[in-house]
Design a protein that fits this description.
Length: 169
């Protein structure tokens, strides 16, 4: 099983503010949906709760919510209390590619523990004020294997790039 993460980050590594997205990039949301559909996803509880109620659990995905709260329950979700158990759940259910979708603490832990094989990163070409950050990408650890540039347009206030990184062997 491949363990991946998927995230959109600003040039200054901001990924959110006040438990919400800062930018609106419809093509990024479409990319996220197409990439993660029919797969297991892992999200932290706070990140999960930040998803508008009408969209949760995210459809066509097995939603695994990580929380330290032993009494947290959410219909349609698998609840786990540590990252390793969440990953094992996906593996035990014959997942081929698991996606960690946030938030900031979950990304940091997964990268620090070297649990990630692949990263799907939308680089938003702008600096934003925020309170949640993605760790610096270590070029000694990651190879950029593809990048697709997208200019700003009528629906996208900022240019952005869909970039895929794979862990160096």
């Amino acid at each position: 099983m491949i363990t991946s993460l998927i995230v959109a980050i600003a040039e200054n590594n901001v990924i959110g503010k006040d438990n919400d997205l800062i930018w609106r990039l419809p093509n990024d949301m479409k990319f996220f949906k197409e990439t993660t559909s029919n797969h297991h996803i892992i999200t932290g509880r706070k990140n999960y709760i930040s998803i508008p109620k009408k969209f949760r659990p995210l459809p066509n995905r097995t939603n695994i919510v990580l929380t330290r709260q032993t009494d947290f329950n959410e219909d349609g979700c698998v609840i786990k209390h540590n990252l390793e158990d969440a990953i094992a759940h996906a593996k035990n259910n014959n997942e081929t590619e698991l996606f960690i979708i946030g938030g900031g603490q979950i990304y940091k832990e997964a990268l620090e523990k070297s649990l990630i094989d692949k990263m799907y990163i939308t680089h938003v070409h702008h600096n934003f004020d925020g309170d949640t950050f993605f760790p610096e990408i270590d070029n000694n650890t990651w190879n950029k294997v593809s990048e697709a540039e997208n200019p700003a347009d009528g629906k996208h206030a900022h240019s952005y790039s869909f970039t895929i990184y794979e862990k160096k062997k």
